């Protein structure tokens, strides 16, 4: 039968599967039930087969969505032998996830990387077409892996075609696939299709069917068999189709109905299981031929080992057409048939339960443990929630709900976690359970969207938990509260409360968590002790990446940007190796922020880009906003003003959603730098002045100390000397209570530009901010400008030359051009600098080439960056001409030369 009305879609898909070697990516086909998604896919598969592509496919089944990695198992089963060649961590993660080996809980990103590597290797031998149908019903773990793969196949000979129902959520929606929306057929095409399947309809019936089907292809082909001449109740189309399919089912003989009901409830489609369970119900052997009437009724397709429904609505219509007792008996029969598969057995038993059943609840709890062990967090949450429903004991019910909520928090399922906590709170809770329920949701977005009164509540909760003899949970609660002091401003009273609780915890002062809490809560009052602990702990970097991440964040709070860069850089490799992509963007964002402040743009560019990428991929909007704001700052420093403005606007949209102060502060910094480099000093002062106004949402208590020099520079040029003096006086008072290096460095600059004698420039340069080349270059530039204004042009040139060379080396184009202009005004020519080799590369390419220059293989680079090694090779092939090299051995030299 021709595929009516889909010529344009088929043409697009034909082009997609025609040349996968050209790196075509994929498409997400969406539409209502029956709109023809499967038919369009079938045509694309036929075209791909003719074109020589290898086909791998998987289908989401509603009954399987609680079985972790079920759809991935189906997809990879034909190529599973290739997994033996995977790197050991990937191989172990994949085998464990698929239930084919026993090992530690697999990291989901290692599973994703294993799938990507395996598929990439297969595609190298023969281009691949991956078809994933009904992804809205796919288990979450498999859908996440497919989304992970979809984001990374742009350079692979792989095409991914996925289908999803309108309005249904799926991770594939945010995976970068192009979208294809299937609309209902126009009237003339619908009429042509109806006439082709039912040519002898009377005119009234034909008109009614066209009206009821409203252009839905499935309705046009299936409703004619159920139509009557008389009036019919008006029903929604999906419900009407299900009723039509249900009527076909009820017209079948009883043994066929029983067997078909079992097939509809059996999540695997196994013909052997279906026949065995039906035989137990009927009390007699059942042969495959028993299903022949269902095939003739166009409800199922029968293959040697499987039974599959021709449309999901046919599967769902059948259980809805029988009584609960019939469904219950079928589930129990299936449970007995799959008794050697405890997870499936538990779910069928649960579906058959008529009330509380602690035995089944315990089996589901065991199933949750097994799912968690395989990395199936979402499946574990579903099993625990179902176990809670079957729990007779209220305390066990609450425990199961809260445990499920903890797992939902871990997997980023905010709505699920909130619902589970709400359900738990509906019953009586023990003190321990109330504590768990109180802090459980705090992990989402670091509590940014919560009412600030929650901070003090968390402090009291931490105190009470510690008093009950649980210091570790208390510290966890306190850390969650402290994080709010970074993203928001709870006020001095709340900060003092938090600090008092921290001081009372029975943990060592050198505990990294306590050090970080003190830094976040009291960045000035405790700066001296925190800095002392940080310097002592610096010798232990690399031992524990999570500890390094804590310490990097703590360093940033107390103005120790060099330590922040050091600790966060040490954290990143360990977090990568452990596959902790949720924590990795946090360490990367701190590293990028710090490196930009130090003027190391070459290092910051790829780190900021990767932080933004992983933050977006792992659903951390405010970390994404912070990383994007850092990218805006980098663009401003490079003189890329249009890009800086666009990135700042994007970051601001994220930050304003909940007043995320570090994001908004960095946005204003980027805007101030942009305005200054464009000569708009009044605008620059207005942008940067906001960073020191406590009433402004861009005010961030700890980070403002980094911006003193930036403000001083534009204030002098904008003629805002008195306003600058007021802020500097405030910062001078603050400096008496804190040794924060960033603050004292900024004040040395501000004093120098405010000093009419110019003597404090020499003092500032003599203080030696050696680890801060950008700040030293800024001092030389300001001093050179001052000397030239004093008509000491000859004296100014040496400082201006140093500034120009410094900013050229750092890639700070806007500042370098200012130094050049000043040099020309001082009577010395200064040629324009050519583009740096690094600046010819995208941030992603720069990440790859830096690792290649260190001697890493393509496979090692791929494991670090979560790419296939073939993608790495493709990027390097494109990078070589940009850098003017022809071999990997030349990369280090090219980068060194460009950075000199």
From TrEMBL:
PROSITE patterns on file: HTH_LUXR_1 (PS00622), HTH_LUXR_2 (PS50043)
This protein's UniProt keywords: ATP-binding, Nucleotide-binding
Taxonomic superkingdom: Bacteria
Keyword ATP-binding carried by entry: yes
HTH luxR-type domain ranges (all copies): 834-899
Region feature Disordered, mapped onto this chain: 822-843
SMART domains, sorted: HTH_LUXR
A Pfam short name: GerE
InterPro entries recorded: AAA_16 (IPR041664), P-loop_NTPase (IPR027417), Sig_transdc_resp-reg_C-effctor (IPR016032), TPR-like_helical_dom_sf (IPR011990), Tscrpt_reg_LuxR_C (IPR000792), WH-like_DNA-bd_sf (IPR036388)
PANTHER family in alphabetical order: TESTICULAR SOLUBLE ADENYLYL CYCLASE, TRANSCRIPTIONAL ACTIVATOR DOMAIN
Descriptive protein name: AAA family ATPase
């Amino acid at each position: 039968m021709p595929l009516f009305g889909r010529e344009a879609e088929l043409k697009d898909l034909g082009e997609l599967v025609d040349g996968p070697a050209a790196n075509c990516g994929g498409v997400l086909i969406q539409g209502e039930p029956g709109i023809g998604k499967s038919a369009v896919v079938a045509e694309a598969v036929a075209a791909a087969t003719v074109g020589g592509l290898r086909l791998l496919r998987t289908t989401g089944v509603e009954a399987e969505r609680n079985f972790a990695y079920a759809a991935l198992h189906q997809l990879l089963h034909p190529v599973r032998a290739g997994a033996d060649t995977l790197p050991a961590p990937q191989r172990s993660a994949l085998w464990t996830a698929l239930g084919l080996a026993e090992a530690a809980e697999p990291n989901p990103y290692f599973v994703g990387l294993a799938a990507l590597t395996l598929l990439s290797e297969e595609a190298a031998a023969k281009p691949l077409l991956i078809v994933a149908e009904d992804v809205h019903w796919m288990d979450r773990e498999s859908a996440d892996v497919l989304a992970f793969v979809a984001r990374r196949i742009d350079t692979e000979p792989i095409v991914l075609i996925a289908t999803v129902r309108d309005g249904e959520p799926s991770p594939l929606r945010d995976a970068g696939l192009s979208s294809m929306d299937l609309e209902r057929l126009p009237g003339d095409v619908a009429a042509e299709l109806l006439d082709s399947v039912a040519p002898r309809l009377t005119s009234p019936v034909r008109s009614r069917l066209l009206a009821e089907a409203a252009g839905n292809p499935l309705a046009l082909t299936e409703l004619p068999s159920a139509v009557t001449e008389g009036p019919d109740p008006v029903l929604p189309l999906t419900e009407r189709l299900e009723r039509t399919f249900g009527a076909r089912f009820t017209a079948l003989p009883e043994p066929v109905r029983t067997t078909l009901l079992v097939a509809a409830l059996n999540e695997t489609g196994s013909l052997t299981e279906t026949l065995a369970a039906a035989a137990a119900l009927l009390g007699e052997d059942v042969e495959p031929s028993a299903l022949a009437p269902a095939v003739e009724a166009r409800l199922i397709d029968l293959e040697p080992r499987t039974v599959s429904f021709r449309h999901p609505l046919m599967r769902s219509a059948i259980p809805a057409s029988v009584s609960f007792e019939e469904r219950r008996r079928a589930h129990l029969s299936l449970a007995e048939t799959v008794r050697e598969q405890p997870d499936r057995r538990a779910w069928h038993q649960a579906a058959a339960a008529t009330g509380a059943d602690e035995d089944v609840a315990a089996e589901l709890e065991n199933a949750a443990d097994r799912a968690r062990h395989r990395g199936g967090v979402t499946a574990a949450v579903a099993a625990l929630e179902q176990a809670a429903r079957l729990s007779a004991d209220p305390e066990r019910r609450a425990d199961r709900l809260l445990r499920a909520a903890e797992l939902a928090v871990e997997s980023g399922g905010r709505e699920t976690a909130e619902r589970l906590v709400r359900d738990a709170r509906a019953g009586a809770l023990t003190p321990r359970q109330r504590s768990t329920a109180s802090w459980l949701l705090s992990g989402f977005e670091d509590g940014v969207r919560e009412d600030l009164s929650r901070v003090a509540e968390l402090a009291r909760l931490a105190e009470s938990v510690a008093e009950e003899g649980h210091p570790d949970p208390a510290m966890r609660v306190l850390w969650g509260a402290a994080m709010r002091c970074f993203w928001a401003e709870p006020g001095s009273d709340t900060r003092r409360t938090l600090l008092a609780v921290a001081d009372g915890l029975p943990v060592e002062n050198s505990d990294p968590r306590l050090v970080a809490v003190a830094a976040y809560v009291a960045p000035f009052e405790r700066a001296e002790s925190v800095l002392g602990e940080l310097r002592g702990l610096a010798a232990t970097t690399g031992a524990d990446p999570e500890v390094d991440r804590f310490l990097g964040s703590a360093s940033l709070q107390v103005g120790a940007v060099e330590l922040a860069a050091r600790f966060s850089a040490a954290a990143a490799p360990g977090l990568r190796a452990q596959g902790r992509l949720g924590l990795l963007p946090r360490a990367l964002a701190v590293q990028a922020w710090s490196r930009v402040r130090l003027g190391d743009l070459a290092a910051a560019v790829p780190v900021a880009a990767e932080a933004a990428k992983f933050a977006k991929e792992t659903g951390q909007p405010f970390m994404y906003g912070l990383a994007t704001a850092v990218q805006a700052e980098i663009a401003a420093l490079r003189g890329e003003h249009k890009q800086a403005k666009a990135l700042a606007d994007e970051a601001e949209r994220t930050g304003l959603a909940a007043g995320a102060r570090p994001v908004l502060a960095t946005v204003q910094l980027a805007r101030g730098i942009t305005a200054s480099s464009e000569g708009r000093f009044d605008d620059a002062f207005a942008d940067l002045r906001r960073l020191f106004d406590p009433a402004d949402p861009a005010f961030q208590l700890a980070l403002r100390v980094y911006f003193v020099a930036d403000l001083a520079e534009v204030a002098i040029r904008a003629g805002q000397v008195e306003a600058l003096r007021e802020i500097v006086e405030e910062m001078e008072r603050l400096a008496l209570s804190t040794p924060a290096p960033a603050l004292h460095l900024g004040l040395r600059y501000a004093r120098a530009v405010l000093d009419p004698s110019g003597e404090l420039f020499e003092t500032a340069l003599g203080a030696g901010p050696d680890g801060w080349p950008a700040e030293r270059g800024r001092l030389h530039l300001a001093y050179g400008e001052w000397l030239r204004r004093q008509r000491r042009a000859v004296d100014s040139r040496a400082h201006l030359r140093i500034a120009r060379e410094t900013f050229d080396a750092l890639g700070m184009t806007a500042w370098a051009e200012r130094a050049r202009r000043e040099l020309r005004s001082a009577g010395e020519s200064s040629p324009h600098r050519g583009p740096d080799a690094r600046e010819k590369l995208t941030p992603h390419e720069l990440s790859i080439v830096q690792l290649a220059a260190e001697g890493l293989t393509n496979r090692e680079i791929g494991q670090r960056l979560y790419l296939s090694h073939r993608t790495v090779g493709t990027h390097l092939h494109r990078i070589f001409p940009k850098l003017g090299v022809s071999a990997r051995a030349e990369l280090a030299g090219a980068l060194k030369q460009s950075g000199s």
